Amino acid sequence: MIDTNVRFDRFDEPFTHYTTGPVIPSQDLKRLNAELPAEDLYRRQVKEGREFDKNYQMWLFDLAEDSLRLPATERLPQAWSELVDSLLSKEFTEWASDGLGIDLAACPLTLGLYRYGDRDYTTVSTAKLTKAMHWALYLNEDWAPEFGGRLNLWSARDAAEPAVEITPAGGTCAMFAPTEHTWHNIGKVTTGGQVERLTIMLEYWKPE
User: Fold this and answer.
1) In sequence order, what are the beta bridge partners of 121?
2) Does residue 208 surpass a pLDDT of 90?
3) CA-to-CA distance for 86 and 26, rounded, in angstroms?
4) Which of 11, 13, 174, 193 shows the greatest Cβ crowding within 10 Å of its Cβ?
5) Which residues of 53-86 are buried (b: 16+ CB within 10 A; e: fewer)?
């Protein structure tokens, strides 16, 4: 399902990050949005309060751990099952490794499907430094600018405004290797409940 002919675009401000154009053909993106995974497959994730380094609200469905599908994925609609298989394939790993200039084959991969409903968000953080690559694959067929939910990249945690704003356009990707300076967050979703922001997070972990 993933188009491995798509190239990676590198940017070095405010820190090194990469984006791609659509990697999922439009007909497959339509299939994914036509039949969504059942809501009872997700668990609510909320962490709010000054005592936490990062605050957030979202829904999460765990798809894979240590590069292996989890049992609950047997309940996925066909298109979603095909997508998970594509993301765990050797072909995908080789394409990603070549495009990003990092050998991801030895990095355990975690896949999670995230739903961000109205007013869901994350606050600014760097991402865990034990990750080799932090990767977002955006899955909404359409995403209007007024829906919010952008990936914001910051030059510093306390900067007045983000240096870069990335709209979660359908089928595109954004990724970076976490460091102490990879400040980022997901802006508050403002859809009024009309639609939820759908993202698969690919988390490649550094080998132990």
Assistant:
1) 57
2) no
3) 16
4) 174
5) eebbbbbebebbeebebeeebeebeebbbbbbeb
User: CA-CA distance, 100 to 67, in Å (whole number)?
Assistant: 19
The CA-CA-CA angle for residues 59, 131, 71, to 5°, reads 50
Where do the domains of the chain lie, and which CATH numbers do they carry? 8-205 (2.60.120.620)
Q: pLDDT per residue over 88-118, tens digit each?
A: 999 999 999 999 999 999 999 999 999 999 9
CB count within 10 Å of CB 23 equals 20
25 C-beta neighbours (distance < 10 Å), count: 13
Say if CB 182 and CB 15 are below 8 A apart. yes
Sequence-ordered alpha helix ranges (H) in the chain: 26-34, 78-87, 90-100
Token pair recorded at residue 36: 């969504």
Alpha helices by DSSP H, listed for 42-184, are: 78-87, 90-100
- In angstroms, the CA 67 to CA 69 distance is 7
**Predicted pLDDT at 78:** 97
CA angle 38, 41, 44 (to 5 degrees): 115
Residues 75 and 136: their CA atoms lie apart, in Å, by 23
Q: Is the pTM of this model over 0.90?
A: yes
